Amino acid sequence: MPATASITDRDAPSTADTAVVLVNLGTPEAPNTRAVRRYLSEFLHDRRVVDMSRWLWCPLLHFAILPLRSGKVANKYASVWLPEGSPLAVHTRRLAQAVQQELPEVRVLHAMRYGQPSWKQLLQRLQAEGVRRVLALPLYPQYSTSTTASVGDVLGRAEGLATRLVDDYHDDPDWVAAIADSIHRHRANEGAGEHLLFSFHGLPQRFVDGGDPYARQCEASARAIARALHLPDAAWTLTYQSRFGRERWLEPSTAGTLDALAARGIKRVDVVAPGFAVDCLETLEEVAMMLAEDFAEHGGELRYIPCLNESPAHAALLAGIARRALGAWER
CB atoms < 10 A from the CB of 3, how many? Predict the structure, then answer.
């Protein structure tokens, strides 16, 4: 198997039924305070996400953060909610259906690490239905202990199943080509901006200082995509968005970089978010709405390039990654 998608596995392979599960982060079930509070509570209780002492964190979470943030976050979700539900849920479900068309020989499902459909409960259901092997494909192109490892934690506790986890696909040639093609097509249709931002989700700097490969993989992803587009280094910048809390996060920030570009007189900027498999709150509300409005106040135009979502190219490349992982499992 090529070194473009690294894999870890547990237990011996089985000849019984196999399931491929696309696992995404999660989303509230409704754009209201109660649903958002329930979702954030589960998400922010994960030690992979917040590794503070529970004695300090739990009171802060339940008596300050959740009461103060849930309503505000619910309003943000409401601004991007689709008739079928949360964008992340809708696109993830459609993507799984598209991958199933590419992999008729196995069952393809989707799950959420937090919220519904529950990753833990799906594994229990699959075992009860007689599935013996589960390949988990987290929809995180770049590995992080705060995301991919948490999916692996649940998978590792699954009883009675042979399991395998795709760790990342940050430099998979088909993924790089699909992202590059989406940028090329957008610019062919809309005209090229003066600068291109690769905006990835942020991460506290101390995670990377402790050995997390996330930043290194983000850099490799951005450089590979820029190379596929034949972009000189001066034409693009890697940035990080979605900060939370007061500690130091990865730099440069997307918001700060946009301010700096505006100060240089750059008026037209394209933004793509290669760390997100499908569009969600962070891409649609934070980038395409909030940051675009901020940049417009400086006299500029920010054009957001959508995620791959359930596009045929996305389904095909994920099916290819899954097929190679399953093939390696057989050997």
Answer: 7
